[in-house]
Amino acid sequence: MSRPVSRVLTLLELLQAGGVRTVAELADRLGVGERTVRRYVDHLVDLDVPVESVRGRYGGYRLAPGHRMPPLMLTDDEALAVLLGLVAGRRTGITAAAGTAGETAAAKVRRVLPERLRRRLDAVLDSLTFTTEAAGSAAPPAAVLLPIADAVRHHRPVSVRYTGGSGRGGERTLYPYGLVAHGGRWYVTGRDLSVAADRTFRLDRIAGARVLPGTFEPPPGPAPAERVLTALATAPYRHEVTVRVRGTAEEVRGLLPASVATVAEAGGVEAPPGSGGGAEPWCRVEIRAERLDWLPGLLASLDRPFVVERPDELRALVADLADRLRDAARRTAPPPYG
User: Fold this and answer.
1) Which of 32, 173, 282, 323 is the Cys-Cys partner for 193 at CB 3.0 to 4.6 Å?
2) Residue 193 and residue 201 in contact, taking contact as beta carbons nearer than 8 Å
3) Does pTM top 0.90 for this prediction?
4) What average pLDDT does the chain have?
5) C-alpha span between 37 and 315 (Å, rounded)
């Protein structure tokens, strides 16, 4: 590639990064004079690249918004980041594209890459394996995600067609506070005007979204991610579990997923009955779960004294786990074969 052509393409790459670039900045990056920069811009315009001239003290050149710019110019690291992002997005279920859009996007990126780079990236993707199975398709379609995101950004109400876990559906009007991706799913948290309360909704259960006129002022309080995690941890389940754990709420909170448990100071420093006494603080942990069989292991992993307040069934499961661990510790290894 001749040097002038290479510099023209470098100029295009600089403009594709966004914003207004001054003539002096471009001249410095390209290693040419300002008059040459203007000549390179003329070359781009002749190629139907929509370069705009911005006048004024902070003027320069920029690309007109809304245009899809060929060629796609990516470094090796950038191309690897894009393709791995598409693959990881499909695996985790958070790729915001319905159907095969993620695959077709990856194919388009590969198609415009140089052969040398394409072969190297294919080697990475062909040799890559994941330790977890691909998540189910819970990504929202763009027709749902984009209007909700626009409503969040501009503090606009939005009307959605929502179907709850019970299968009942209907129109809801929300004041959306934020979008959150968690555990392979997308959520929107906000004020549900139909019940005058804050609610969290899964985007894969929204069939349609429409931004409404007007604006609202988001209230102070927890960030959207904290609101979603709290909603997940306090959602109604079959079992309501309460456990007292030795330690401050801050210490214990760092040991438990926020989407599973809520932790609060127990009030006072007295140990619960049967805990062996002591003046260290205790906190109260509340967990809602469909099954109890996984909780004894979770509590044991805290490596802190704890007392089960409810339900009695969990207390029995903890005792059973303790017996099995004790039996396992007493066993001796069988003699080697041969």
Assistant:
1) 173
2) no
3) no
4) 81
5) 76
